[in-house]
Design a protein that fits this description.
Blueprint lengths: L9 E5 L5 E6 L3 E6 L1 H6 L18 E5 L2 E2 L12 E6 L5 E6 L2 H37 L4 H23 L11 H20 L6 H18 L20
Antiparallel strand pairs: 1-2, 2-3, 3-7, 4-5, 4-6, 6-7
Helix pairs in contact: 2-5, 3-4
């Protein structure tokens, strides 16, 4: 006979050497899906109580504490509740209600799964954020220079646009001032691209340690694999 006391969400229960009965658990109870012989083999119901048997409904038969329930009658959906429904000519499903203890265990498991998924999502986001930050770290002096020059260029364009006629105040810089601003900006841009740089390995390592710390804090399962930059860092002055 099959084990009908499982609270797993979906599993297979062996009822013979050649067949298996599918069992699904939901908020309503446990649903056993299989042939009439498989349903009967669980011990939940006799063969003469199956839908389609004499005196039973053709599609569905419902029982409470072993007694037939007339259509439209209300009964608690507890462990005494049993409803068998025909899915097809050969396949049936039998729903057994939860006891109060099983209902509590089911919803507790649902809540634990929700918390687990939330923690896993937070950990995934933390890892993605860490990987983005590590990937953004310059690994050579030239990459560092180019990044700073790009940031400077974006800032300069913002400032330069404000030097032209302002439609709100009416003020603007004259052509000579704008030309001088462009020349000075060009010299600063060149300085950022060619200037000598320094590298403080201890500061970078401290930042990497901090990144790993908050990733580890978000990890629902410890220990974790520590994140490191995927490309080697040129530890030298440029």
């Amino acid at each position: 006979m099959a084990d009908v006391n499982s609270t797993s969400s979906s599993r297979l229960v062996a009822v013979s050497n050649d067949h298996e009965l599918k069992v699904e658990v939901s908020g309503w109870g446990r649903t056993f899906i299989g042939s009439a012989a498989q349903i009967v083999a669980t011990g939940l119901v006799r063969h003469d109580q199956m839908p389609g048997e004499p005196g039973r409904g053709k599609v569905q038969a419902t029982y409470y504490d072993g007694e037939p329930v007339r259509k439209g009658s209300a009964r608690p959906r507890d462990e005494k509740y049993l409803s068998i429904r025909r899915r097809s000519s050969q396949i049936f499903e039998a729903l057994v209600g939860h006891s109060e203890e099983e209902m509590g265990a089911y919803w507790a498991a649902i809540d634990r799964d929700r918390v687990r998924r939330e923690k896993e999502g937070a950990y995934r986001e933390a890892r993605e954020r860490a990987e983005r930050e590590l990937a953004s770290m310059p690994r050579t002096p030239q990459i560092y220079r180019e990044r700073e020059a790009r940031c400077f260029s974006a800032l300069i364009e913002t400032v330069a646009s404000g030097m032209c006629v302002n439609e709100f105040s009416g003020y603007s810089y004259d052509a000579d001032a704008i030309r001088e601003f462009r020349l000075v900006s060009a010299r600063l841009h060149t300085l950022l691209l060619t200037g000598k740089t320094r590298f403080d390995e201890s500061r970078r390592n401290a930042r990497i340690e901090a990144i790993n710390a908050w990733v580890e804090q978000a990890n629902p399962v410890r220990p974790v694999l520590r994140l490191v930059p995927s490309v080697g860092i040129a530890n030298c002055k440029g």
